[in-house]
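Q: What would this chain look like folded?
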Amino acid sequence: EEQLARHGLDPAALTNLVLTHQDDDHMGSAAALKAKYPQIQIAASPLEAPYLSGAQKNLRLRQAEELQAALPPEQQAWGEAFCARLRAVSPVAVDLFLRPGDTFDWAGGCTVVATPGHTPGHLSLHLTAHDLMITGDAAVWENGGLVVANPQFCLDLPAAEASLARLKACRCRDYLCYHGGFGR
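A: My prediction, written as C-alpha cells:
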C-alpha cells in the first residue's frame, strides 16, 4: 500500500492482482490485500491455484522440509525459520485463471506466457504495448543477458531452461526480472 501510494495509486482502485507463482515473497500479502480490498481479483495459473489456496501443500515448503534434513547443524535453525515463514503464509483463493496465450487490456495490453520450471505453473506477462516482459522468477538479468533465476531452487530445471528460451525468443525491448533487475 505504501509503494502504491508513493506512485500515486489508490489500492481501492485495483481490480486484479497477478500472482506469477506460489513463493511466499510473491503471494505472501495477497490474502491480506484481498481481505481489505475485496474487489481485487486474484489471478494466477490453474496449476498454481491449489498451492496458493492451501488446497495442496506449498511446493516450496515441501522442498524446504526435504532439504532441512541435509542441512549442516549450523544451518538447521535457519532452515527451520525458513520453513516456519512458509507455513505462516495465508492462503488465498484464485478468482481468475490465467492460461498461456490469454490476452488482457491491462497496462495497454498484455499476453500471458507460460514459464514453468521455477514452479509448475509459473507465468510471465508480455506487456505488448510497452514491449516489456515481466519474467517473475523465470529469469534474472546477469552480465547483459537473461539466465535462469536461482537454478538450485527450480522445481524442474529442464522446464526452467525451456522457459528461458521462450522468454528470449520473444525478443522484448525490456525485461523486468523480480530477483535480478531490469534488462534491455
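The first helix runs from residue 2 to 6.
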